[in-house]
Design brief:
It is built from 7 helices and 18 strands. It has 352 residues and is an alpha+beta fold. Strands 1, 2, 3, 4, 5, 6, 7, 8 and 18 form a 9-stranded mixed beta sheet that branches. Strands 9-10-11-12-15-16 form a 6-stranded mixed β-barrel. The two termini are 12 Å apart. Bound molecules: pyridoxal-5'-phosphate (PLP).
Length: 352
Amino acid sequence: MLSNIKVTRTTKSHFDQVDWDNIPFGKVFSDHMFIADFIDGKWTYPRIVPYEPIPMSPAISALHYGQSIFEGLKAYRDPQGKPLLFRPEANHKRMNKSAERLCMPAISKEFFLGGLLALLKEDEKWIPKKAGYSLYIRPFMFAIDEYVGIRPSESYRFIIFTCPVGSYYNAPLNVKVSDNYVRAFPRGTGYAKVAGNYAAGMLPLKFARQEGFDQLVWLDGKEMKYVEESGTMNLFFQIGDSLVTPVAEGTILEGITRDSVLKLSKELNIKVEVRKISIEEVFEAYNKGKLLDAFGTGTAATIAPIQTITYKGFRMELPPVEGRAISQKIHKALDAIRTGEVADENGWVIRL
Ligand SMILES: *Cc1c(COP(=O)(O)O)cnc(C)c1O
């Protein structure tokens, strides 16, 4: 696919130093990374090098003006131990959507997927063998012009590194609905995976954590009425026997897990509604005893059950996680596809 990749292998692999039964999320990095540069209007110099610090000018524009985007996906092993990737083409597409919004160059499939496959070939042994574990993959791109002035950078760097990971959240989540800060607003950058979106959410999240919550649920930026998403997860509510997820109209990051859950629900004959849902509606359903489940979806967290939702001091206590048959059914179906236990009818899985 991408044939001219220069490979420089590490001389000191730290594979044997990893405590494989106890991997903290996002803190263990595999041996190599893939790098390519956008210079003079084209992607060039694809290379695989040891994972290590990269020298850079203090004036690179990503640091000052925030032209920086990222993706997140995972590699798994099937029951025979063969590695597979889940929907990497969807990540490639979304990365280019983010790039367009920040006036950054698109990256070709050749570089994105070609670089990724070449990197995984080098570091295949880093894809964990243990059930429930996977290799988290972080492609990202940032502006590298050495220039203090606001204009789109002319040069960019694209990097992919990987982290073996266990599960992201261990316990069901206690979330707070943000009633003072917002994450995104119409016509802004909410739909794009741009670094600045997450920086803006950190102060509100810090306050919520000080109050003992795990995550924030964001409301729409205009009326602060409709539920949007939570952390790096899209949200689903089970009201009666129907799943409801907020419609994505530019302020919500369209998760690939969300899309997969929507498609699987249809296959499993589970009722799903993609529409606006106000926080009042969630409360009404709760008061009528009809709010049976709420969960977040995302690559890092997969399907993360929510235990309590607090809004303006009122706390909704959801049913025990063990009894949530619908989301567990979807979770099982999704995991079975991602780990190659069942045939993939949707063309989601790519084998290395
Ligand atoms: C990445 C992300 C998600 C989830 O997307 P997936 O493709 O399912 O991992 C949801 N919301 C936000 C804000 C995100 O950054």
